Amino acid sequence: SRYRSLKHIRGPPVPSWVFGHEYMLTRQQEAGEFDFPCVKEYGLTWRIGGLLGGDQIMTADPKALQHILHKSGYNYPKRRDVSKMSEVFSGGPGITSAIGEVHQRQRKIMNPAFSATQLRRFLPLFQETGLKLCEKWEKEVITVPNKTVYVNKWLARTTLDIIGAAAFDYSYGALDEKENALSKSYSTLFLDSTLYQSKLKLFYRIMWHYLPDWVINILMNAPTRELKRVRSTSRLFREVAGNLLREKGSEAKEKAEEGYKDVLSILVRANASEEPRSRLSDKEMKAQMQTLTLAGHETTASSVSWMLLELARHPEYQARLRAEIRARREVMRARGDIRFTVEDLDSLTLLNNAIKETLRYHPIVLNLHRYALKDDIIPLQEPIVSTTGEVVDAIPIKAGQWIKLSLCAYNRLPSVWGENPDVWNPDRFFRIDPTKQTKLGVYANLVSFSGGVRSCIGWRFALIEMQALASELLEKFEFSLPKDEVYDIQRLPAGMMIPLVRGKWHLGSVMPLCVTAVP
Ligand code: HEM
């Protein structure tokens, strides 16, 4: 049968015939606590259980990842239950849930909005919104010395305002308004809908993979608590999108005709296109808006929050970083400029190393769930030893085989990242020679943005945004561990990796840090 051939691959004992490792993986107390020991015990590729006695391959092997993500094009799609869940999160058939040719069409339509030239134009917006956050903190938030601030909450509002303005020329007013319904709804979305689901619900959801689309389309509307929660965010978004298209739609159409390549103009033009290959339906257009809003804000806010936590844990590095930013500020002022340019930001080596190291150490997406469309052979960079002691350097698989990519474990491989990969140390990037690595990710060979045809479309957007926000924040504020209490931050697997405080889950997903203005 199809799975028998994998029995010779070693892996951890399967905890349940029904769930395989699926349930266990969602129940981790610390993201990666499953993956990291597996690499140490079995090598970079191992066998885990799937549903109902099935076997899966799990891998962190650079060559296997390269094969699956890059070289095979669309031959290793996302598991169907995963894409269908993305559809629920996007409120319709958007780019994260589309597969094959539909995805190719959508991606081609949207790509021009994410070119390097296009994104440069957003830098002033990133900076102004960052400065607005600084001002808020200075005037309203840091009212007493040693104030503990939930930095992730503030950053999520900042990045929500940014994605609204950058993509849709729309103001969410999340930084200004205390009670913004949409930003509130987003802020607990993953926690409420994805973290620690019951066994039954998880089983039911993963089984979607085997069902025909029309059945899933009915099940997607089932009245479970989790689905209702996600749909309620979608409803709020649809209201916003409706207003937005009413207000900006005709203007966007004109801009599109003049060749503007901002997201909204591109989407509106594609929506009006007569040509099937470049057309987006109404549903698709709205789903893209919702997708970009979701995929484009909390991801970046989270990454910056993890970086600030690490800088709080590493005050000496933080001080070097601040000095680097200030020195560049002098150069900038001497030129007569008032803002950093993209070149200035790219020249901040310590900052960029800290960003890379944070993406490596705290990848927001831990695992990707894929399956093979065709029979294939997966090549391995580091051979493994089978149950009978033979050396395996390639794994033949059958069409339909489930495969999990361990992005978090790849990001910790000493063979790729050098010694002490379990320590956050940005200086490692001074020693890394990317030409010696297997080409993988879109950025710095990290797989934190995934890779290949399904890689993150917004990685450059995120990078410039992180550079801009971090350079403003770190120049004006010092981040340290909270003084009022000890907060033990857990990294939890909730679809996206989210921070929770051990013993204080009632606080929700928070990143508490002590923030002090620096003179
Ligand atoms: C640090 C910030 C970010 C990280 C770590 C990140 C990470 C990722 C990852 C790992 C994927 C692949 C997911 C999968 O295959 O299931 C992805 C896809 C995606 N990301 Fe990001 N992302 C970030 C920021 C952004 C931003 C700012 C945007 C938009 C402005 C964005 C838009 C998207 C979209 C649309 C996709 C789906 C692409 C496709 O399937 O063709 N992301 N991202």
Structure description:
This protein has a single domain, classed as Orthogonal Bundle (Cytochrome p450), CATH 1.10.630. The chain is 50% helix and 12% strand. The protein has helices spanning 22-26, 35-42, 62-71, 80-90, 100-110, 116-120, 123-141, 151-168, 181-187, 189-193, 199-206, 213-219, 225-257, 263-272, 282-295, 298-313, 315-335, 342-347, 349-361, 407-410, 414-417, 428-431, 459-476; strands spanning 45-49, 55-59, 147-150, 367-371, 376-385, 391-397, 402-406, 477-480, 489-494, 496-501, 512-517. The N and C termini lie far apart (69 Å). Protoporphyrin IX containing FE (HEM) binds at residues 78, 95-96, 107, 163, 291-292, 295-296, 299-300, 303, 364-365, 368, 448-450, 454, 456-458, 461-462.
Instruction: Classify the beta-strand content into a percent band.
Output: 5-15%
Helix content: 40-55%
Termini separation:
69 Å
Q: Which CATH architecture is right?
A: Orthogonal Bundle
For the largest sheet, list the strands in their spatial order: 1-2-7-4
Mean pLDDT: 91
Can you tell me the CATH class? Answer: Mainly Alpha
Q: Identify low-pLDDT runs.
A: none
Ligands bound to this protein structure: protoporphyrin IX containing FE
Number of helices: 23
- In one word, what is the shape? globular
Largest sheet: 4 strands, mixed
**What is the count of structural domains?**
1
Number of strands: 11
